[in-house]
Amino acid sequence: MSADEDPDIARAADLLGRAERVTVLTGAGVSTDSGIPDFRGPQGVWTRNPAAERLSTLQAYVEDPEVRREAWRQRAVHPIWDARPGAAHAALVDLERSGRLVALLTQNIDELHQAAGSSPDLVVELHGTMHHTQCLSCGARAPMGEALARVAAGEDDPPCPRCGGVLKSATISFGQALDAGVLMRARRAPVDADVLLAAGTSLGVHPAAGVVDLAAAAGAAVVIVNAEPTPYDDVATVVLRGGVSGILPRLVRDLTG
Ligand code: NAD
User: Are residues 20 and 65 in the same domain?
Assistant: First the structure.
């Protein structure tokens, strides 16, 4: 049993302590304390400006050059570029060091898990990464810095340097399919775990949120850590309502010696 005074945290820590295989699902809430706003939280980008959701829609991005110009303006000054990993990211590195981590499925596109020290092999980026661009026509990938240098030099909608196609961050927009290999790992990892830990996610986006159903159906215990209620709270074994930066370090404290 964990030494934590909070009985729910102690129960969740105990589940993790007994588990041999843990799969983690993270969302934007894991990075808000690093200065990157989420989309759907009380201070979220879409909560404050519902029209911003259009920027994340593939069809609008392809059809409307003004959507692309606005997307490039926002990418150029995005808080991702200055963000540093925080206590929640560090706690998940500790979880990996305890030898239990099967996979760290993340909806985040900020690469902060890898920056904190999580093994790139175990991090599955469900929605891609903002640190690269990808051409929607020929598929060519390149570091985001190359495109942002062109934006800084005056190109407001830089096309693919190889084929002239529409260039976008290598992230998954609404209307865009997830990578098949990524999807396969995302479906296997929850089934392969004794515990699924979902942290900092509204669990409102599929197929990512379906990971919880897969884990529960396979008999895994489900621990949800989030500031707000989620649609999956009644499926969870333990729900911890609060900030991930405070809670995750307490969950893993007793796992590493
Ligand atoms: P979301 O915006 O839908 O939900 C985030 C959840 O985290 C909310 O329920 C919010 O209450 C909670 N939260 C915020 N800060 C928290 C904290 N410090 N502690 C505990 N909970 C906290 O995000 P999502 O479920 O991850 O999915 C939305 C999509 O947004 C994904 O597709 C993702 O790619 C994208 N996104 C990514 C980033 C990033 O990479 N950092 C940032 C914004 C959006």
Answer: no
Q: What are phi and psi of 29, to 5 degrees?
A: -65, -20
Distance from C-alpha of 206 to C-alpha of 200, rounded to nearest angstrom? 15
In the numeric block, the tokens 């927009």 are attached to 173
Q: State the residue range of the domain holding 31.
A: 1-36+84-127+178-257
- Of the candidates 89, 113, 127, 132, the residue annotated as catalytic is 127
- pLDDT exceeds 80 at position 243: yes
Structurally, how many domains does the chain consist of? 2
Residue 36 CA, ligand 1 centroid: distance in Å: 9
Cα–Cα distances in angstroms (integers) from residue 55 to residues 45, 103, 119, 186, 246, in the given order? 11, 30, 31, 25, 32
pTM: 0.95
- Catalytic status, residue 89: no
Same domain? 137 vs 253: no
